[in-house]
Amino acid sequence: MTTAEQRLAAILPEPPPPLPPTALIDAVAIDEATAYVSGQVAFTGSGGPLLGRVGAGVSVDEAATEAAKATANGLYRLAAALGSLDRIERMLKATVFVNGTAELTEHPQVADGVSRTLLDVLGERGRHARSAVGVASLPLGVPVEVELVARVLR
């Protein structure tokens, strides 16, 4: 039987780099039994995220893959903050920001990359509410940014 951490490493082998000490935010903020993960993009250990807009150079499938990587980064951040993904009682909410063209209507298909990742790594604990929101731009020019909210065991 594999652990959530092993399933996460199968999706994205390396965790994201830590936030620099000068960062004005926390990667994860925990308030009692709720953990809020700051917006994540698809940084990987071997390089930066894909850049571009969905519908103009970035396909919906590519964006869903980027959303999966961003979600994996968020789970790595949660694991670091909590000590283990086993402390996640349940994912509550995922918000997926999609940098797409004005004509793009496939935001839910992009966000499916998030939902698949949460379910693949956490099983039923990964079930969640979700919003997929189209935006005019995102930091660094990435196509997708993901925020997560989880209920955690104390």
Describe the structure.
This is RidA family protein. Residues 35-148 form the Endoribonuclease L-PSP/chorismate mutase-like domain. It comes from Phytoactinopolyspora alkaliphila. InterPro entries: Endoribo_LPSP/chorism_mut-like, RutC-like_sf. This protein has one domain (33-152): 60s Ribosomal Protein L30, Chain: A, CATH 3.30.1330.40. The chain is globular. The chain contains three helices and seven strands, in the order H-E-E-E-E-H-E-H-E-E. Helix 1 (4-11) crosses helix 3 and helix 2 packs parallel to helix 3 (107-122). The protein has 154 residues and is of the alpha/beta class. Helices cover 31% and strands 28% of the residues.
Tell me the layout of helices and strands.
Elements: H1 4-11, E1 28-31, E2 34-40, E3 53-54, E4 57-58, H2 60-82, E5 88-99, H3 107-122, E6 129-135, E7 144-152
Parallel strand pairs: 3-4, 5-6
Antiparallel strand pairs: 1-2, 2-7, 5-7
Helix pairs in contact: 1-2, 1-3, 2-3
Key phrases:
154 residues, alpha/beta, 60s Ribosomal Protein L30, Chain: A, two-stranded parallel sheet, 3 helices, Endoribo_LPSP/chorism_mut-like, RidA family protein, RutC-like_sf
